[in-house]
Amino acid sequence: MKVGVLALQGGFAAHARALTRVGAAPVLVRTPVDLDGIAALVLPGGESTAMLVGMTRDGLEAPLRSFVRSGRPVLGTCAGAILLAHRVTGPVQRSFDALDVDVERNAYGTQLDSFAAVVDAGGAFPDLPAVFIRAPRIVRVGQGVEVLARVAGDPVLVRSGATWAATFHPELRDDERVHRAWLHEVA
């Protein structure tokens, strides 16, 4: 399966490696033509404002918005979760409004406040290590969005159909369960 990884900024290379380990064929997406033939898409962590600037500059925002709304599988991690959200605060920012969640950017603090934790997944992903770097917090989960994992009570992994979002960086650990489950779920 060919899986696109938005490669304008952020953790795209780590996602490509994780996808390769689970048997997918990653394709780095830098231009609209790179979306051709892609079955699924990863919006990586990084800096969501910088990604939006790059999307506008490279003519990618409309094609990405179309892909995300097409119903094809999308996984957004950290900044990617911000891009998928219905509403973004801290500060307010535009998004694809593809997932009925509201997020607050950098909600856990600055880069110095970054942390690692084990998610509470109620059995779905037991002992899943998670890395939070200037992470957003999901502050509202809408109807039809399933919470797959929490940390300290906060939703950190959610899905609605083929659209998944994680406020952490599953690509930064040698644990591909999130990538594998997403691809299995949507394949």
Can you tell me about this structure?
The structure is a single chain. Helix content is 24%, strand content 32%. By secondary structure, the protein is an alpha/beta fold. It has a single domain, classed as Class I glutamine amidotransferase (GATase) domain (Rossmann fold, 3-Layer(aba) Sandwich). The chain is globular, with a radius of gyration of 15 Å. The model has no long low-confidence stretch (mean pLDDT 94).
Task: Name the features.
alpha/beta, globular, single chain, seven-stranded mixed beta sheet, Rossmann fold, 24% helix, 187 residues, 12 strands, three-stranded mixed beta sheet
Write the layout of secondary structure elements.
Blueprint: E1 2-6, H1 12-21, E2 25-29, E3 40-43, H2 48-57, H3 61-69, E4 74-77, H4 79-84, E5 85-89, E6 99-104, E7 115-118, E8 129-132, E9 137-141, E10 146-151, E11 154-160, E12 163-166, H5 177-186
Parallel strand pairs: 1-2, 1-3, 3-4, 4-12, 5-6
Antiparallel strand pairs: 6-9, 7-8, 10-11, 11-12
